[in-house]
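User: Can you help me understand a structure? I only have the sequence.
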Amino acid sequence: MTRYAWLNGRLVDEAAAVVPAADRGFLYADGLFETLRLYGGRPFRLADHWARLTASSRFLGLPDPPDPNPAIEALVRANGAADAVVRFTWTRGARPAGPRPGPAPNPTFLATLRPLPPDLARRRAEGVEARTVSQSLRARGLAMQGHKTLAYLGSVWALGRVPGGAEPLLLTTEGHLAEGATSNLFWVRDGVCHTPHPDTGCLPGIAARVARERAAALGLEVREGFYEPGHLAQADEAFLTNSVVEIVPLVALDGRAVGAGRPGAVTRRLQEAYAEAVRREGGAP
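Assistant: Let's start by predicting it. Here is the structure, written out as tokens:
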């Protein structure tokens, strides 16, 4: 079955969605990406994702990204997938050789669609394990902190060092928890929700923002801080967030149970509240 992609304003066979060999996204990871969920063909929190992509584009000296809606509409129609994951890739495009950046008169804009992970329902119901990665992968004050760049090799490397299905937890140079390789991290202790401070280098996740909004609506306090793995090990319950999985319980850390070793009551309430936000904002019926 043919799958279609959106490349620079045109719907093309995904197998033919190629970029020039001199594209700086390919050569130097000179670009950005966003990944978000479609519910019934409608994107959730698209404005938030696009605001982040636009802000990062301006930081890097890239043009503002184009309107994503034509790409979404064309991909849903051509691929026949209404509940799916869409990824946008935005690069400086092809330029003369050498790493020095410059104007981007012909940036590359690629959008692709993929199905939801086949084990998503199981992970959301039963929870997942996390493993701390001892080598420091995050630090304060880095120029790229908070930007979703194509330079993703640190997370790829961490994912290759843990058992399949486990989420690597990345630490700062000081040994503080920062984030998961593909997620933001939260845990609950004595009725208070905790999450790493932005200065740990964690990405300002869109799903994490939704989780914090829903927590506030439920009367839950959320505290940012600089925490060590031991703080997470003492949690009553924990969860991970990203825009694909929404909220997934974290039930084990480094082979030991977190809390009771099963999804907690706060996590379940937040999962329900997240689903309600999707329905209210025009996502799933």
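Now, to help you interpret it: The chain has a mean pLDDT of 95. The longest strand covers residues 31-39. Let me know which part you'd like to focus on.
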